[in-house]
What we know:
The protein is an alpha/beta fold and about 260 residues long. It is built from nine helices and twelve strands. Helix 5 crosses helix 6. About 35% of the residues are buried.
Amino acid sequence: MNALVVAGGQWQVPLILFLKRKGYIVFVADPYVNSLGVLEGDRHIKADVRNVDLIFEQIRNVNFDIITTDQSDISVETVAILAQKFGVKYNSVESVQRFSNKYISRKYSKEHDIPVPAYSQVKTTGDVEKFISENNYPVIIKPCDSQSSKGIHKISSFNLNEISEAINDALNYSLLDFCLVEEFVSGIEVTVEGYCSLGKHKTLAISRKNHFRTGIASDLSYPANLSKEIEEKLIQTNDQYVENSGLNFGITHAEYIVN
């Protein structure tokens, strides 16, 4: 039996070891030869996790039973494409983009009456200036398709150089030719974890995030110590988001601001 795990960092190691214990030959797609997951796997596919064509070229003659990822936002679209190519269980690209692409996520949320900050695609400082003139400061500039808060900048006052650097940094972490600007929303940030099976979703845990800088948490507190009303609203919203997304299965992770 063969399994492909897309991404081979330290957070993928438990999944790789689990599959090996189950008797799978584990192929690991990762750009680095010394990644901890690569060292634990059986076969190394040396490629960036978002380079679908390069990964496929190296595995096209292998029969896979499982193609998966864990703890890697940027790998889920690759998994969806490859799993469909190999005819193993998969989520559609359209469904996973509603989780992995922040612009698509915002647009989808609005269509389903889930509150989101004001937002827009931007490519230039002029685009950001226009957004700010309509929505005021502060704003957040971020890549649409990255992870781990990479390329995120808070802009609190007019500074063309700062805006330009923020756009360039966001694009540096993206495969797209645009990034996202959105209004900054202050409040309590929470994480919401769940599991989806056969298109039905169960929210399992909610934490309160504490930060040491914008977008980066220093710790998560369980329980979140929210009111019952707010907790129920979060669960309802989270389950609604997943169950309308087209996702068939998978572990889910979301972040919300309670304001």
